[in-house]
Amino acid sequence: MRLQVALDITDIRKAIQLTKDLCKVGLEVVEVGTPLIKTYGLSSVSAVKVACPKAEVVADLKTADVGALEARLAWEFGADWATVMGATNIETIEEFVKEGRGLGLKSIVDLIGVQNPEARAREILEVARPDMFVVHLGIDVQKRTGLTFENLLDIAAIIKGLGVGVGVAGGISEREIELILKRGINVDVVIVGRAIVNDASPQLRYVNLSKALKEGIRKSL
């Protein structure tokens, strides 16, 4: 179970500095968020990769079409992982995953906005096997509906049972990490954005969250 930091911001200087700072305290996976890519293009992926070469970099493209092309572009700009929308055409997902696998780029299907994530994951697995599905509670949905992080964990557990990697995202902090550990759900990646990026001391917050995650795993063994 790894901690992934999502840079869902539009300030490239802040993103690079945050990556450098977090790199010093053990950053393993960093996500170049969709807002950053939309503002600065895929060169932002390269910049973040240079800022912490030892960390794996996720290009959160949220691809909706031309799957093979966007997978190739992510790889060319230095991404280790890239995302495709689970709600898009099945053909696009298939092309994205296939191209990524041929290049050595790992593929993530983001299930944000999908009404029945379990059914969609099963449908996708019939034609393509991505490296990971991310069960994602979007910011707008968190603000306006009654959906909770607990709901996400139920879905994540089911998808993990399909024999594929799974990540969780959506307003995660210490409380949500505690819930993951308490439920004993073996997610592969826990994605944290605002709780670290907007903290007064991102390094300390990252260390504390990472410590809580790792210590919780050890206790469960």
Automatic annotation (TrEMBL):
<dbReference type="InterPro" id="IPR001754">
    <property type="entry name" value="OMPdeCOase_dom"/>
</dbReference>
<keyword id="KW-0456">Lyase</keyword>
<feature type="domain" description="Orotidine 5'-phosphate decarboxylase">
    <location>
        <begin position="2"/>
        <end position="209"/>
    </location>
</feature>
<dbReference type="Pfam" id="PF00215">
    <property type="entry name" value="OMPdecase"/>
</dbReference>
<dbReference type="GO" id="GO:0043801">
    <property type="term" value="F:hexulose-6-phosphate synthase activity"/>
</dbReference>
<dbReference type="InterPro" id="IPR011060">
    <property type="entry name" value="RibuloseP-bd_barrel"/>
</dbReference>
<dbReference type="InterPro" id="IPR013785">
    <property type="entry name" value="Aldolase_TIM"/>
</dbReference>
<dbReference type="GO" id="GO:0006207">
    <property type="term" value="P:'de novo' pyrimidine nucleobase biosynthetic process"/>
</dbReference>
<dbReference type="GO" id="GO:0019854">
    <property type="term" value="P:L-ascorbic acid catabolic process"/>
</dbReference>
<keyword id="KW-0119">Carbohydrate metabolism</keyword>
<dbReference type="GO" id="GO:0033982">
    <property type="term" value="F:3-dehydro-L-gulonate-6-phosphate decarboxylase activity"/>
</dbReference>
<protein>
    <submittedName>
        <fullName>3-hexulose-6-phosphate synthase-related protein</fullName>
        <ecNumber>4.1.2.43</ecNumber>
    </submittedName>
</protein>
<dbReference type="GO" id="GO:0004590">
    <property type="term" value="F:orotidine-5'-phosphate decarboxylase activity"/>
</dbReference>
